[in-house]
Amino acid sequence: MHDLENTNISILGSLMRDIALPIDTLQQYSIARWATKTAMVMEAVTRQRRKCFYNQEEREQLRATSDLPVDTFVWLARYAGNLHLVFTGTDVWDNEPNRPETLHGYVNTIGFGYLVIQVLSFHLPPNRQPASIAPHPAPWDKILVPVWPVRRTVYWPADITLSDTGRIGLGDLVSRWSFGATPLDKSPS
Fold it and tell me: Which of 2, 88, 94, 113 is the most core-located residue (most Cβ within 10 A)?
């Protein structure tokens, strides 16, 4: 994992300092791996208070093969506010927890400097179609830069910046997948 850290120092350093740039598909993959690994590590720190979402197989898969867990999504956002370091993680569901058909997810929001990264992973119940819930309404396509799954070269920063005083804040991003999000027929955007 030391190599993963070293690989991302340059790109994450540029993003956190708010340097506008294109992010190619290899950089997106590297950022997504780093963010997912960081979410897994930070989540493990809280295991005395809650059961970890990511299982040993997923953690080992990322370490050994660099494969991200299935049904994982990663986005970048620009933040111009008073917080300089942010880490928050929470479980999310599309229905009541502990029901067999309920979709369980875990969302992590990691921020430093101008950069905020959000990682969302799902565990699908048996016989469930791929992950498909929508976030609470907001112009997410203008706020977020998707980096996983990789599609094409993307550009930093996004069109809309999160702030502490504007229409859409960092708290809105953190809580966008909270219980009550609307079911959709497509993957999260």
Answer: 94
Residue-wise pLDDT tens digits, 127-145: 777 666 778 889 999 999 9
Decide if 101 is inside a domain: yes
The domain of 116 spans 2-174
**H or E stretch covering 93:** strand 85-93
- Total residues found in the chain within this entry: 189
Q: Is residue 116 within 8 Å of 133, Cβ to Cβ?
A: no
- Rounded Cα–Cα distance for residues 156 and 142 (Å): 11
Q: How far is CA 71 from the centre of its chain?
A: 11
Strand 104-112, strand 115-123: pairing? antiparallel
User: Is residue 33 left, alpha or beta, with left meaning phi > 0 and alpha meaning psi from -120 to 50?
Assistant: alpha
Inside any domain, residue 189: no
Q: How many domains does the chain have?
A: 1
